[in-house]
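Standup notes, structure subgroup. Blocker cleared on the S-adenosyl-L-homocysteine input:
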Amino acid sequence: MTTSGEPPAALADSFRRLIRAHGPISLMQFMGESNAHYYSRREPFGEAGDFITAPEISQMFGELIGLWLADMWIRAGRTEPAHYVELGPGRGTLARDATRAMKRYGFEPRRHLVEGSVALRSEQLKQVPEAQFHDDLSSVPMEGPVLLVANEFLDALPVRQLVMTDHGWREVMIGLDGEDRFIEVPGQVPMDSAVPEARRDAPPGTVIETCPGAAATLFEVAGRLVKQGGAALFIDYGYATSRNGSSVQAVRAHRKVDWLAEPGVADISAHVDFAQCAAVAQSRGARWLGTSEQGAFLKALGIDARAETLASTAPQHREALMAARDRLTSPSEMGSLFKVLALTAPDWPDGAGF
Ligand code: SAH
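Run returned:
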């Protein structure tokens, strides 16, 4: 499916009607509804789409993730039944490659895909015919270890922004200017109590971004690991220590675009605050193995050797394989910006790459 030739901007019109009738809506609502719309009716991935994710760059990515999860399960004692759980599986490529690699190590967990989009579920089913689908984690079985991965899932969850004004902290809302364009405006309601005391005293214009959906996800996954055993990898672009400022952006057809211009048409995302994610998971009792850069993680798992093996069996693809390896690991590409956060149950072993 191509991404050109959009139908009329129904979502933008409905936002405009809502704002005219009731005043500005929160940035969080704007982002949440835009992305629900975006993923429900588009095939955003790959060359013909809006962006390319790591599993779509090379099968090596999914294979190494599968290897990491299988290794954890084996060293933790091979408890059955075990569950492979993926959050936001996109086209299903990572699930397919990871489960194929696991099988080579004698690990054949049940496959659970947590996906909100009906359109994407049918794509995923083609890659993983045994998949069971879930709207959220709550229906994933409560018994047996969980081996979970989420790649570029957290960055799609809506963020809330608070801005320091001359009158104190306010939520960032979306209103309309004189020409009916969406603009950011400070809300009417004082929000000082929502800002941690240590960060409250800041110059006007300071923006604090939080992602309640990411915090809720980490809390729930950590709870599952503590109760059922298991390990989890969250891979995304973001920062290792919390910082101020807005990180909201939109991408369409591989270009950055104005995220306010066409809600539901471009993919809106935000950087993930990995320090916050680790703190939430630890508060629930899970063990945080660390947050590595994607490049270092894949190197530790042997991506160089894997690329060589694949190139020796298919010499005509050598150049493409090495280019894919570089794209995934080089600091000037995905290697440093993307991070891998690993969690385990308290009594599970250490993992490679941390
Ligand atoms: N992991 C894939 C896709 C990343 S795009 C890859 O790496 O290629 C984000 C994915 O998360 C999509 O599958 C999208 O439909 C899903 N998603 C976004 N918000 C969601 C939500 N609130 N609940 C469940 N899935 C969601």
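Discussed briefly. The longest strand covers residues 230-239.
Next: hand off to the docking folks.
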